[in-house]
Amino acid sequence: MVRFENVAKRYGHGPEVLRDLTFRLTPGSFHFLTGPSGAGKTTLLRLMYLAQRPTRGEIEMFGQDIGTTRRDDLPPLRRRIGVVFQDFRLLDHLSALENVALPLRIAGARREQIESHVSELLAWVGLAGQINARPSTLSDGEKQRVAIARAVIGRPNLLLADEPTGNIDLAQGLRILHLFEELNKIGTTVVIATHDRSLIATFGRPELRLANGELTLHQPPPPTQAADDVTLDSDAEHPA
């Protein structure tokens, strides 16, 4: 699903934000991405959803070498990835329903199928009464839930979420994580960047921890998850 080989990223002439990241994620895996502010979590997600290219190293997505992929061939790969951005990135001139429907419209789904699926998902995330609302009338928490619904509506092969529960309460956060788990059960690979240790403890998934530009794998406390859904070729930490 995802392969990074000695990947590094720097901005301009500054120091490398990420350096020599080597890891693999297999289809159907579920990981939390953690680390202190400024560790490079958002940069790593940007590389994974093909918004940026590495300064050096190789990235392979869905079996395709991104370094040799033409720019015109990237959009079909991006459509296989659902992304929850920290800043939501909703289109202000569209309603909540229309924002969530965008991935299905791009995929060519029928109108009646779109409306039924989108309405059902918005109700599930607690926004049944805001289907026709524009983003400017929604709270940050409501915008976050619209953004999450948009990311998962097309059942992506890979779901990347950058602090998806940062603007919602604990109950809604747990509900959203259960939604991500259900997607994972039907095959979606999930990576969630978060600072919320309570969510990590509750769901007991492996962590990919970034610190000082380097990545290590940390398994959850017993009962441990199977470790064969990720391989780190660096000196990863494996607690007993």
Question: What is this entry, summarized?
Answer:
The protein has helices spanning 41-48, 74-78, 96-106, 111-124, 140-152, 170-185, 197-203, and strands at 2-10, 16-25, 30-34, 56-61, 64-65, 81-84, 158-162, 189-193, 207-211, 214-218, 230-232. The chain is 31% helix and 25% strand.
Describe the fold and architecture.
The structure is a single chain. With 240 residues, the protein is of the alpha/beta class. It has a domain at 90-154. Helices cover 31% and strands 25% of the residues. A six-stranded mixed beta sheet has the order 6-7-8-3-9-10, with helices on both faces. It has a five-stranded antiparallel beta sheet with strand order 5-4-1-2-11, with helices on one face. The radius of gyration is 18 Å and the shape is globular.
- What form results from the Cα inertia axes? globular
Number of helices: 7
- Give the structural class: alpha/beta
Q: Low-confidence spans: pLDDT under 50, at least 5 residues?
A: 223-228, 234-240
Which descriptors would you attach to this protein?
disordered C terminus; six-stranded mixed sheet; alpha/beta; 240 residues; five-stranded antiparallel sheet; 11 strands; globular
